[in-house]
Write a structure and sequence with these properties.
27% strand; five-stranded antiparallel β-sheet; globular; 10 strands; 283 residues; 3 domains
């Protein structure tokens, strides 16, 4: 579908405020102004809003215990397990309308030219939540998780063993190694030089790289994981200066940042796929 059709589909499922008895509400919000799909340079930006009630379990437990103690004191009897569960549910329903709410946003970039859907989320659960709402909102799209011919773990381990990363990349100073043995012992290096024989000794002993800090073309730093996730993604000063020079005002800066980000990541993805043997075709 094109951006107009996607915008219409998302507009049917906007974020609404939590009702009195709702724990959470999920729906689409404007990434910028007045449209659910923000289009710049043929790239799309969409945003999922989530509003959630803040009702700590400790508050429910404490209030339930107070109610149970009052019943026991007044009726001279012990509150049973089932009654305690029912009392806990009743307390939760009573407190829910008065609970504070928090709101967060999960962003995603769609590159219709290359078929990418990139979700900006630090946890797998948030990615799954985003995809669930997207598929429910749109329905007739096919998503396939990216798989590469070579696993990131084996490639990162080889780069460390040889001391040389793939073309376009350099190795930084963050690393997580994991043993393949039953205990699966883990060694982490944070802001620690990875040169020398210590790393090679760990690899020779059977440990493999699960996370590796890298920099791409002196423009983007990242932490590559064995699941092919890019964490701690950061655009370096060179890119930030280019964005600032190409924009005047906050609105233009937003779009300039988006254009530079998508342009850089398209090239980074291309080099990373080459480094991992290309995309694995589905069976």
């Amino acid at each position: 579908m094109d951006a107009r059709q996607l915008n219409a589909a998302l507009a049917r499922h906007p974020l609404t405020r939590c009702g009195a008895l709702d724990m959470h509400s999920r729906g689409w919000v404007y990434p910028k102004d007045g449209e659910f799909v923000h289009v710049v340079n043929r790239q799309w930006l969409i945003a999922l809003g989530v509003e959630q009630k803040l009702l700590p379990a400790t508050v429910i437990r404490q209030t339930t215990q107070e109610r149970a103690a009052k019943i026991e004191a007044e009726q001279q009897r012990k509150v049973g397990r089932k009654e305690l569960r029912d009392l806990r549910d009743s307390v939760a329903q009573e407190l829910l309308p008065r609970a504070f709410t928090s709101r967060r946003t999960t962003w995603a970039w769609i590159d219709p030219l290359h078929g990418w859907l990139v979700v900006d989320a630090g946890a797998d659960a948030k990615v799954e939540e985003f995809l669930e709402v997207l598929l429910r909102s749109v329905g007739d799209i096919q998503l396939r998780q990216l798989q590469t011919e070579r696993s990131p773990s084996s490639a990162m381990t080889e780069w460390l063993a040889t001391g040389e990363a793939a073309p376009g990349f350099s190795i930084d100073d963050d690393l997580e190694l994991q043993s393949a043995s039953v205990g699966r012992s883990v060694i982490r290096y944070v802001r620690h030089g990875l040169e020398g024989g210590e790393i090679q000794q760990h690899i020779a002993a059977g440990k493999v790289a699960m996370k590796l800090g890298m920099t791409w073309n002196d423009r983007v730093s990242l932490l590559l994981t064995d699941k092919l996730q890019l964490k701690r993604l950061a655009f370096l000063d060179k890119i930030k200066e280019e964005a600032e020079q190409s924009a005047q005002g906050a609105d233009e800066q937003f779009d300039a940042d988006f254009v530079l980000m998508t342009g850089e990541l398209q090239l980074l993805f291309k080099d990373l796929l080459l480094a991992l043997g290309g995309e694995a075709q589905p069976a």
